[in-house]
UniProtKB/TrEMBL annotation:
Intracellular or extracellular location(s): Cytoplasm, Cytosol
Annotated protein name in UniProt: Needs CLA4 to survive protein 3
SMART domains reported in the protein's UniProt record: RHOD (SM00450)
Record's compositionally biased regions (Polar residues): 51-61
Species: Ambispora gerdemannii
């Protein structure tokens, strides 16, 4: 009991001490604000009196009233409204007025107004960054709204860049915001990037990652790079204070077939990035910090003798497009694929076969076709025996299916030889199934 009471007392004392400190800082701020108000008042009365003087003088005599030079952008000042608005962060030790002014003098370009870009834009706008640029070629969909909190229902169908700009401007009218409703590529990246101090890569595709990296090295801008997949996230700053660029760590892009988009929740080729900050919602500690490898002296873009001095064709370089909605994986020949309508006919004929649903269990539980077997792709190599056991005859065909038709293709090579019958993946997965066969099948 006593121990609890003692620790409670300790907490109260600590709280008290904190409040006292905060009180002192607030008093100090009040004094500063009063001084500034007085200065403004005296300037105002000076202006008024000089106006009166002008009126009383003959019109052919010019007056020389003191006009202050315009404040340069690098030396911004805050208005009284801004002091009040940002007061709670201004009084933070280690932040203070100078950081707030720096923030106001800074311009940041966010590429991608999705799951990472949306919250980044909201917080940067709220805390008072001077100018924001938001690049996104996509439109708002209701399936974005659970995480892309910068958009809302009434914006469905509207450009994400425009929607983000509307939210930013509604949130903080002190922030200048430019929307770029376009797909960033080699032809337009440099002129846009040159207009900003810091670039944030909040995209989810490897081609844009290389494009932004090279553009930032060429223009000398730091590149803040974030990525998120399922329960994990990463954060790094490339090309900053002599540190490495993305190419230093990844000179070659991952094979296209290993990069599925986040729509299918597949395996990203860069899951093992040795990054500055790693987050995992399912591990302890939640955050881990890993030292980056140093800059490579022979890096093709930031090394001692760079061979890349202008932007390339990144879609060709990576072998994969930037669109993240349609599956781009094409692992199999036509002889190992079946389209949803053909497969529906097999079901209608009640022809004997096995339908192997290779989605994760959590997705299988959302919806699935009757009589299908669920073995997630990542477990399949160890669970092949289960498929074998399920075969009624040695020549029973096996069809694989998933949400979008990426994982189902990866499954086919694993199953080759397990049956004398055919092994095929259902092209386009349940996404196409719902379009071509059963419009009542839930799409998520
Ligand atoms: Zn490099």
């Amino acid at each position: 009991m006593e121990t609890i009471a003692a620790s409670h007392l300790q907490l109260v004392l600590e709280d008290n001490e904190k409040l006292n400190k905060e009180n002192e800082q607030l008093k100090l701020r009040v004094v500063q604000l009063e001084q500034e108000l007085n200065q403004l008042n005296s300037k105002h009365s000076l202006d008024q009196s000089s106006k009166k003087n002008t009126l009383s003088k003959p019109s052919n005599i010019t007056t020389t009233t003191t006009i202050e030079p315009p404040t340069p952008a690098t030396c911004v000042d805050l208005s009284l409204t801004e002091y009040l608005r940002y007061g709670r962060q201004l009084i933070l030790a280690g932040f203070g007025l100078s950081a707030q002014k720096k923030l106001k003098a800074t311009s940041i370009l966010i590429v991608g107004a999705g799951g990472l870009g949306a919250p980044a834009a909201i917080y940067l706008a709220a805390c008072g960054v001077g100018r924001l640029g938001i690049v996104d070629y996509d439109v708002v969909e209701t399936s974005n709204l659970h995480r892309q909190i910068i958009h809302n229902e009434s914006r469905a169908g509207l450009s994400k860049a425009q929607s983000a700009k509307m939210t930013v401007e509604g949130l903080n009218s002190f922030v200048e915001c430019n929307a770029y409703d376009l797909q960033l590529d080699s032809s337009n990246a440099l002129p846009i990037i040159k207009g900003y101090d810091i670039i944030i890569d909040a995209t989810d595709n490897v081609a844009t990652r290389y494009l932004l990296n090279d553009a930032c090295v060429i223009t000398g801008k730091p590149l803040v790079s974030g990525s998120a997949l399922r329960m994990e996230g990463q954060l790094t700053i490339y090309n900053y204070r002599g540190g490495p660029c993305y190419r230093c760590l990844y000179p070659k892009p991952p094979p296209p077939e290993t990069v599925t988009n986040c729509a299918d929740g597949g395996i990203l080729g860069e899951t093992y990035t040795p990054n500055l900050l790693l987050f995992s919602a399912a591990s302890h500690p939640l955050f881990r910090s890993i030292k980056l490898r140093p800059k490579k002296s022979d890096c093709e873009v930031c090394g001692n003798k760079p061979s890349i001095s202008k932007l390339q064709d990144y879609v060709q370089f990576c072998g994969i497009g930037v669109l993240d909605k349609s599956p781009t994986v094409k692992l199999l020949g036509t002889e190992e694929r079946i389209n949803p309508k053909e497969y529906a006919a097999i079901r209608a004929q009640k022809a004997r076969h096995i339908l192997l649903d290779v989605r994760e269990k959590v997705q299988f539980e959302i919806c699935h076709l009757p009589d299908s077997i669920n073995i997630p792709l990542r477990e399949l190599p160890e669970r092949l025996e289960e498929v074998k056991q399920a075969l009624p005859f040695s020549n029973t065909p096996v069809y694989t299916i998933c949400r979008l038709g990426n994982d189902s293709q990866h499954a086919v090579p694993l199953l080759r030889g397990i049956t004398q019958g055919e092994v095929k993946d259902v092209i386009g997965g349940f996404y196409r199934w719902s379009k071509d066969v059963d419009t009542n099948f839930p799409i998520y």
